[in-house]
C-alpha cells in the first residue's frame, strides 16, 4: 500500500517536536514523535508502508512488527480524518 497526503491540509511546526495540521473539517490535529516523522515523509511525496515502517524502526529503534502495528493505527486515524489517502497504484 502506498499512502499520500490528501488534498491540501495546512500544516505548521510550532516547535521542534510537533506538527499541527488543520484538516478540511476545520479541526486541528497534532502529531509528535513517529507521527511527525510519518507526516514529514509524506509531505515529501507518497510513501509505501514498508518505507514508513523502515523509517520508524531506524529512528526509534523499535522492532518492525511493533512499528507496523503503530503505523497502521496512525494511518487509520489519519485516513478517517481525511488527512491521508491511499495513492493510486
Features:
Outer Surface Protein A, domain 3; alpha+beta; about 45% helix; about 90 residues; 3-stranded antiparallel sheet
Folded structure, characterized:
By secondary structure, the protein is α+β, with helices and mostly antiparallel strands. It has one domain: Alpha-Beta Complex (Outer Surface Protein A, domain 3). It contains three helices and six strands. It has helices at 34-43, 49-60, 64-80; strands at residues 2-5, 10-12, 18-22, 28-32, 47-48, 84-86. The strands form two sheets. The protein has a three-stranded antiparallel β-sheet with strand order 5-1-6. A hairpin with a 5-residue loop joins strand 2 (10-12) and strand 3. The longest helix has 17 residues, at 64-80. The chain is globular. The mean pLDDT is 90.
Structure, briefly:
The model has no long low-confidence stretch (mean pLDDT 90). The chain has a single domain, classed as Outer Surface Protein A, domain 3 (Alpha-Beta Complex). The chain has 3 helices and 6 strands.
List the topology elements:
Layout: E1 2-5, E2 10-12, E3 18-22, E4 28-32, H1 34-43, E5 47-48, H2 49-60, H3 64-80, E6 84-86
Antiparallel strand pairs: 1-5, 1-6, 2-3, 3-4
Helix pairs in contact: 1-2, 2-3
Amino acid at each position: 500500500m502506498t499512502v499520500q497526503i490528501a488534498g491540501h491540509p495546512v500544516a505548521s511546526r510550532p516547535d521542534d517536536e510537533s506538527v499541527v495540521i488543520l484538516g478540511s473539517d476545520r479541526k486541528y490535529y497534532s502529531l509528535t514523535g513517529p507521527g511527525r516523522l510519518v507526516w514529514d515523509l509524506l509531505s515529501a511525496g507518497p510513501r509505501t508502508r514498508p518505507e514508513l515502517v523502515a523509517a520508524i524502526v531506524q529512528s526509534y529503534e523499535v522492532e518492525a512488527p511493533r512499528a507496523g502495528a503503530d503505523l497502521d493505527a496512525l494511518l487509520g486515524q489519519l485516513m478517517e480524518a481525511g488527512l491521508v489517502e491511499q495513492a493510486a497504484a
